[in-house]
Amino acid sequence: MKLHRLTLLSLMVGSVGCDQATKQLAIGHLKEGPTTSYLGDLFRLTYAENSGAFLGLGGQLPSGVRTFIFVGLVSVMLAMMAWMLRRPESAARTMGVPARAAGAAAVALTLVLAGGVGNLIDRVAYGGVVVDFLNLGIGGLRTGIFNVADLQIVAGIVMLAWLSLRHREAATSG
Question: Are 36 and 44 in contact, with CB atoms under 8 Å apart?
Fold first, then answer.
């Protein structure tokens, strides 16, 4: 089990490190510069500071309320996720995933945790904002501006949903 925890810790540290390194690059190279476009405008690098959550949700709330939600409540949720990772089989069952897939569920939960920690670091370090710099799209159909931590969170959630759906399909067919 120690190797398992070491693997998750390595994933966590590497994921948070990658997120923070890319944000430092964005601050250093994109903050004062124009948006740059690649692959026929499929991919854009543009600097943004997000005071809200996903797509700026909650960004217009008063500063104290944003701090309470995006630092206080998020810290509690992240601590709960970290606590759940102490027992991956139990965490997997809580998330609707069979114990045999506990390792995959732990990796998914670690990605969500790492992304949350990366964005929490920004909020504390940069006065309540998160550094965003990535944008994808074709023509007028574009994503919001996001960062590597957001990708980690989405990847973890998609993995958990897939594991849960797979478990439900196996339970109903078997």
Answer: yes
- Count structural domains, the chain: 1
Q: Catalytic: 132?
A: yes
Whole-angstrom Cα Rg for the chain: 18
The domain in which residue 136 lies consists of: 2-173
Tens of pLDDT, residues 73-107: 999 999 999 999 998 888 888 888 888 889 999 99
19, 41, 122, 132: the catalytic one is 132
Catalytic, 122? Answer: no
Q: pTM of the full predicted structure? A: 0.91
The string of pLDDT tens digits covering residues 32-61 is 999 999 999 999 999 999 999 987 888 999
